Amino acid sequence: xxxxxxxxxxxxxxxxxxxxxxxxxxxxxxxxxxxxxxxxxxxxxxxxxxxxxxxxxxxxxxxxxxxxxxxxxxxxxxxxxxxxxxxxxxxxxxxxxxxxxxxxxxxxxxxxxxxxxxxxxxxxxxxxxxxxxxxxxxxxxxxxxxxxxxxxxxxxxxxxxxxxxxxxxxxxxxxxxxxxxxxxxxxxxxxxxxxxxxxxxxxxxxxxxxxxxxxxxxxxxxxxxxx
Length: 227
Prior knowledge:
Number of helices: 12
Low-confidence stretches: 1-5
Helix content: over 70%
Largest sheet: none
Strand content: under 5%
Order of helices and strands: HHHHHHHHHHHH
Number of strands: 0
CATH class of the largest domain: Mainly Alpha
Mean pLDDT: 84
CATH architecture of the largest domain: Orthogonal Bundle
């Protein structure tokens, strides 16, 4: 018993080292430079040793995603409306992206196919089914919500990089021909001034509102069939 636990602990510790090394590669060199060889070099082991813990690059990235999303809370939300359940899950995902900006780059190349993400997805899928969506629409709604959160995080990362250029961008927007781009010019200040938290919440509610419309349409169609 004790020996087995030690081996398990050692394996977990090594996997943690591997994930940390992979994260360092992505943060310092970018996702495209992430290779098993580079990670092995950072760990001070041979590549074949690495393959004893992660069999492929994709499996390594999934382990990285798991590490970053492991803190997503999946509390008992059954007392909440389906809308609130879905919102709470994706707010938690957004907080994980906020805490770990490297996730934005990773998810630009690989789907969130990790055990940690599926824990939250299970809660959201149950809530969407409970709302009255068909199985196909349930999966479609989850995809739309995931796309929104991932896309939002990537857009936020881009804005961080462009923050120093905000004044130049504002001047460029305001210099556009007002007869052709009147609304863009009128809203230029708000287009430049981006409040991440408020914009995320607003976008999330818009997506959930669209799902509500699907639920209402499905219910109305069912009523017509039974009447």
